[in-house]
Amino acid sequence: RSADRSHSFSRLHAQRLRQLGVRDVPVVEGLAPDVELGRHEPAEPVVFFAGRHIPEKRVPALVPALLRARERVPELRAEIYGDGPERPRVRALIDELELDGACEAPGFVPRERLERALARALCLVLPSRREGYGLVVVEAAARGVPSVVVHAPDNAAVELVEDGENGVVASSAEPDDLAAAILRVHEAGPALRSATAAWFARNARRLSLEQSVETVLRSYRSA
Asked: What is the model's pLDDT at position 61?
């Protein structure tokens, strides 16, 4: 007896549904059940990634970008967490570019270690060409950690980054562009970290799972 209802995690895919003829597409932007405002750690010169090592996420792009960024900031390092079919390529690039010691890809690690690493990271780098949402960007912002994402037609994660306010949107995942975005975060220093925390404080309610549940319930009630 209920009308069919379509919901989207992003404005990008809501618009695509409307182009296909779906008239009403509520956007549920919050997927974080336990992200809270809190004390933020000072940054270390560490670029952070966590996720599946699949072609869409372009994880290997991080390694040559780190090499390029280290030309300007030699102390920069990268920690690349997660696993998948692209991880052997990541490890091969680390060896090929002689970044052993400056870049590590330990695979899956305990959640406590992952959270500590994210909290102290200079920035999260998510070079994906396709993301349906980008929850890790929200998790980073909650800790005052800026994000670097990449412009791409299917990347909804760019909706979660206000360039210069809670991160940087790179023009591509090429080494020069990705390195330039990382260096912008480094040059911005603690001011960008404070701005990221303020951005999250303003948007915490909108990005909460509770808010999304309320949006979905309202949608079904109106049907």
From this structure: 98
